[in-house]
Amino acid sequence: MVDMKKIALFAAGTLFGSAGFKLLSSSDAKKVYTQTTAAVLRMKDCTMETVSKVQEQAGDILEDAKAINEARAAKAEAEVIEDTAEAAAAETNE
Length: 94
Hints:
Number of helices: 2
Oligomer: single chain
Radius of gyration: 37 Å
């Protein structure tokens, strides 16, 4: 009884497997695969455009941040020079 059940399950699995392979290799299935692949390629192109835009914006942000830091450094250096000049003037007045 158990052997017949195993044989029946094996036969059913083989039958469904064969039908599945035929279904997957049909011309209708090929059309679906082609349409799906085309959609994936369109999605890839769209994603790559978005990535390029983000990279460009990140480059702009980096350049702006560097300019801000350079301006702050120049301002801090000018304040140090001013403080040094004031200290030197105070020492000469004493």
